[in-house]
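Run log, item B.
One chain of 234 residues. Sequence copied directly from the ordering sheet:
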Amino acid sequence: MTAEPNGEPLLELVRVMDRLRSPGGCPWDAKQTHRSLVEYLVEECYETVEAIELDDQAALREELGDVLLQVVFHSRIAQESVTEPFSIDDVAAGLVTKLVERHPHVFGDESATTAEHVEARWQQMKAAQKGRTSVTDGIPNALPALVLAQKLLRRAANGAVTVDVASPEARVAAAWALDSLSGESQGGESHGDEALGDLLLAIVDLATQRNLDPEASLRAAIRAHRTRILDWES
């Protein structure tokens, strides 16, 4: 068992970052900007995901620290903004406010019986607070195509959008291929995840052999589906 966190190491991290960024500190840290740090932020997030997928607790602890460094670093840079300065305190305070407001079943008098209910309610409050008019609003197009597709489809499902995802032929082919690969082990255990991975990898391999770009193709399909959703909503 680890000791209960008291926040002091977080404060020390803020002080260390301030020292690195201040005059007399580190020249490299002093010259960084929000834009110059983007590649490191993305890299650290992917390394954190990898640690989770590998169930590597030691690596996860380290990678979470690297992600936290990016948050503190960007916040320290933001303090120097002439037009819209903010600090790590502002970041944390805004997060606390958001968590309290979007958990009325914990901090208010509402109730929530399932995780799905909580997620749907979160999206409703988020859309209202940000003035969103479509379930597609706020989904970053820069996400990897598979992640982008999953987020768009999940948003549409939570918003009760009833639009066909693909052509009937494509849906039938995908269902047949996945069902034929999944099967069941002798103990009755499904191999759905493994089969899905094999199917996706095989599709990418086949597309590459035929000089097709699977990433670009999926993005094009996502754009078309986003348009269908917008048409349905209007």
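Observations after the first pass:
- DSSP finds eleven helices and no strands in the chain.
- The chain has two domains: 8-101, 138-233.
Flagged for discussion on Thursday.
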